[in-house]
Amino acid sequence: MAAERGARRLLSTSSFWLYCLLLLGRRTPGAAAARSGSAPQSPGASIRTFTPFYFLVEPVDTLSVRGSSVILNCSAYSEPSPKIEWKKDGTFLNLASDDRRQLLPDGSLFISNVVHSKHNKPDEGYYQCVATVESLGTIVSRTAKLTVAGLPRFTSQPEPSSVYAGNSAILNCEVNADLVPFVRWEQNRHPLLLDDRVIKLPSGMLVISNATEGDGGLYRCIVESGGPPKYSDEVELKVLPDTEVTSDLVFLKQPSPLVRVIGQDVVLPCVASGLPTPTIKWMKNEEALDTESSERLVLLAGGSLEISDVTEDDAGTYFCIADNGNETIEAQAELTVQAQPEFLKQPTNIYAHESMDIVFECEVTGKPTPTVKWVKNGDMVIPSDYFKIVKEHNLQVLGLVKSDEGFYQCIAENDVGNAQAGAQLIILEHDVAIPTLPPTSLTSATTDHLAPATTGPLPSAPRDVVASLVSTRFIKLTWRTPASDPHGDNLTYSVFYTKEGVARERVENTSRPGEMQVTIQNLMPATVYVFRVMAQNKHGSGESSAPLRVETQPEVQLPGPAPNIRAYATSPTSITVTWETPVSGNGEIQNYKLYYMEKGTDKEQDVDVSSHSFTINGLKKYTEYSFRVVAYNKHGPGVSTQDVAVRTLSDVPSAAPQNLSLEVRNSKSIMIHWQPPAPATQNGQITGYKIRYRKASRKSDVTETLVSGTQLSQLIEGLDRGTEYNFRVAALTINGTGPATDWLSAETFESDLDETRVPEVPSSLHVRPLVTSIVVSWTPPENQNIVVRGYAIGYGIGSPHAQTIKVDYKQRYYTIENLDPSSHYVITLKAFNNVGEGIPLYESAVTRPHTDTSEVDLFVINAPYTPVPDPTPMMPPVGVQASILSHDTIRITWADNSLPKHQKITDSRYYTVRWKTNIPANTKYKNANATTLSYLVTGLKPNTLYEFSVMVTKGRRSSTWSMTAHGTTFELVPTSPPKDVTVVSKEGKPKTIIVNWQPPSEANGKITGYIIYYSTDVNAEIHDWVIEPVVGNRLTHQIQELTLDTPYYFKIQARNSKGMGPMSEAVQFRTPKASGSGGKGSRLPDLGSDYKPPMSGSNSPHGSPTSPLDSNMLLVIIVSVGVITIVVVVIIAVFCTRRTTSHQKKKRAACKSVNGSHKYKGNSKDVKPPDLWIHHERLELKPIDKSPDPNPIMTDTPIPRNSQDITPVDNSMDSNIHQRRNSYRGHESEDSMSTLAGRRGMRPKMMMPFDSQPPQQSVRNTPSTDTMPASSSQTCCTDHQDPEGATSSSYLASSQEEDSGQSLPTAHVRPSHPLKSFAVPAVPPPGPPTYDPALPSTPLLSQQALNHHIHSVKTASIGTLGRSRPPMPVVVPSAPEVQETTRMLEDSESSYEPDELTKEMAHLEGLMKDLNAITTA
């Protein structure tokens, strides 16, 4: 009936829309004919309507017996009537020549005389009804299973037994599940009548409860399944008279795990026997079931539980508890409830045009989760490039063609059953508008604006269609408006595209009028596509552009990630992982590697797998693991899948609860305390605890109590006075009860303690003053018969009433903190109970002064007990270990040699754990107290080394700190993006840009690489950006073949071993218009008001020609600077030759005076001056780090410099230098340096540009007099011609340095004299003038390996641009260590006389001032 009502609604809806279209057709007669160019047609002829075509009745699962007849019902509705056929196991049945199977008039299948034997089962199988209407399509029904009951065969038979009167008995008779409905029982060869006391379970078993004498006799079970009946063995059941003797309580039948479908009935069997006769109770998930008042829950004979009309809420763990007063036993079973597939959303009919993309939506539910397949006109839809399954269940058809018309069905199937739902697809001609039906499933990419067109001019073809961005899997197209409509504000565009050589053409529409770009996604790598663009206006579609042929970029020949990776637990110790073959395999997959790791650890394991699934055994119970899969082909490992996490199944706890303790409260109650089992042994969520207790004299009389899983104590009341009791506790999970603790005994009081009066005065009070604290200890009152609930401690300066602290009655000491030094405190102690506070005991003490660091006790005023000196210190803890648990947590464990061998703490000692990190060096310790032999330190920083130590305190005794343990926390993904992202264009290559950046401030581990994202659309989805990977810790990268005069946006993401960090903010950069102009970035530094255009070119930074005045000024400056440079060089040369002899004498004298009484075997030549940092702007000298840097590269992190590093020469110079501070870039290639050539607007007090030179000599970072030529005259007089491009050297203005937020390394000069090399540079060994290679766009692994032993050497010189300058070898070292820096600084101060350095610096300062005065004039 429901199907018929649905059909009528569908017919009425279709008729309504058809009527609307007829009216529309009458209002615009001939419109369709005008569009198609043919004669006017009838209004309804231009559009077809959807045809109702569906099943009225579908076949259902059927159980039959051999020799009987079966009807599988099927009926379909359609106009005209459909043709009905049947499939069995996927193959059409030929019913015309079949004498046992025939088609009934309504379409049902009739099978007579069902055939079934052990080796011949022609009728059993899966049947499906197929309905076809010519010229319309085909639909298929759900699949129905025909099961034929097999030959009667007993898997277990009844056995002779006896039962006491009033007890329960069972008789087995287990057969195949198909034959259970055909089982009946006989007693003494007469049919047995079943009632509330005698029942047959679904398995065929007979249960007799409350047995009487009449139940005795001979029993047998019979199976009647169409053929001759099959009899079991006949056995005797004896009924014995009831006796007073007790017997053990046992289960005759326990419940077993069951699976049922929603709506079915279920019986959980449970039969117990024993004397006294037991009663049966049921619990579900620790909640008692009320079988008396519930309509759906019935307690059957013997205690079995029947649940009718099962729902999903009935799933869970059921406990059968049998109790006969003497003892209690329990059994449990899991009930799993499954559901057949149901449609939450069915496919709907769709109108579409050719080339469109459509999606049939299908949303299903069920348990287990159904699988979905699609059928078109009765044939399975095989996923391909144009038929895709999206969002798990939906069918997407791309680039429609006429043959795609028909009926599409979504078929959902799981272990319980299957269901189908269908819809029709009609493809209209292009000149027929799609009706505005209730929302159809057109994709957003193909929502055409197809209102009825009016006559008028159509647009011409769009112009200049180009692919502005081509990636491996997407292409971005841009174009200009058609010549017929230059503005094009109201035009929309459709982009038609197809693979070269494929007939299917797909379409993508612009999202809004006037938009002239579209990004085509989901393309295949290294594939040629053909594109054409059409414009539409209100009159219709215009001309198509000429086809554009574009090939996507090739992808790395490695496998992609394996799709649909799933992991599920199969047992408490095993997990099965499944996956599918990667879509982008790029060659045959050779094998897979499955990686797995326990959550919270850092140790990943792997296993090689040749198939698409693998089961990992031997895992920890109820533990979460993560899994990922990597496919391998002949090229190597592919892309890893995302991690999937799953937890192993729970199990019963494998250990007992910990720290069980008993506290006798009074004569009738005892409080039990315990701790959960160790986490590794819980094996699941602890759902409760089972407490068992008994009198020590009657061990068989056990009482049992259940408490919740969060409860860790229980007060047992109603006990006998002065009686010893035994207690034990076991933990429970949903799987059952774990092992119990050992029995623990306690005896109740003979009489209750008195609480009718306040406690007496404590028997003693001791105080121990320290600087800011006082340690208070005491003993309880002498009268132990009065209840003490706790102690109140009062204290204050001069009066004990300023502060009051209450502590537990078991506590015997307390430390009063945060006191003032050298202050007189009065302390009072009172015991209290529920009646009130007792008599106080007074003490006073004076805290120690700040300067007192001794540990000797001060005198205590008015102390009734004389304080004793400090006892001997305790032994410190040993075996301190740090176990790293995560990126911010470390567990500290230790042993205490002053404890017994079992290491159990029975006294009031406690431990203090302290920890710190050495970075920065002045970090303070943090402390925490613990009462166990371990402590969990949390809140630590990732990837950081910590040191830990422990001390023990017991009363007034403390130990020293233990030996330290060290631990480094695990890494974490970077939590900040890379900093200072800058983009510059490469000189001479306008299509190539160079991206520079700094590492993230919060790297949280070693950076293993970066990913650069760039796009022309800053608002595009991140997966639409082009990516460039950078391996290792390089901080620069170049990107080639960009489009000229186009704005690009760049983002950078850092990666360490744990994953990807956040992205940086987008940086914009516009590529130059032509090869001669530089690009403009959106983050250009502020060059300040003193900025001047570069002197090395005729164009300004923005490409505008310089004025004649600028050219004249440029010429004057060049000539002036050249003359000054020659004069300075001559003066310095004369000065060098004049000072050489005297300086050597002074140096030898200085060495002798410094060494003093020390004796050296070598002469003065063996004494080597230390290396120095030369800060040119401040003319200060600092020692450098002597550790060699084997492979400095241009991406080394710059050494930070701040105001603390600077020692000014004088105040006037200091203020000037602050305004014009320069930093020099040491490690840069020629390409990197040339990009800064246009930024020399600031004139420093001393200009030292660095020329790019190739590595020419291996330079050792140890002081040596052999590094430079020994002859100072040669050093002064040798001239050297710079290679071309040396003028590209540059330095950054101070404003630019501040804007970029980074500090650049200062040059490191290798002098033979503290200042001589500064004035007269040395000449490196001659060699061919070669240039540094360009910045790499891929990691230069081979180059790094080849240059491993060679130091980068660059030259620095003093002089004007364009003149020959003697080069100076320069290396940029790493930052010096603090201690070594201090030591070297001391060495340098002791090796050179201060007056000599002062003269040299003053002389150079004078030269600088003269040079500035001349150039300013």
Give me the count of strands: 94
| Radius of gyration based on Cα positions | 46 Å
The termini sit apart by 105 Å
Mean pLDDT figure:
75
Class inferred from helices and paired strands: mainly beta
> What portion of residues belong to β-strands?
35-45%
Profile the largest sheet: 6 strands, mixed
Proportion in helices: 10-25%
Question: Which spans have pLDDT < 50 for at least 5 consecutive residues?
Answer: 1-45, 439-453, 854-869, 1076-1109, 1145-1392
Explain this structure.
With 1417 residues, this protein is mainly beta. It is built from 12 helices and 94 strands. Strands 12, 15, 16, 19, 20 and 21 form a 6-stranded mixed sheet that branches. A hairpin with a 2-residue loop joins strand 62 (724-733) and strand 63 (736-740). Helix 4 (1108-1155) packs antiparallel against helix 12 (1394-1416).
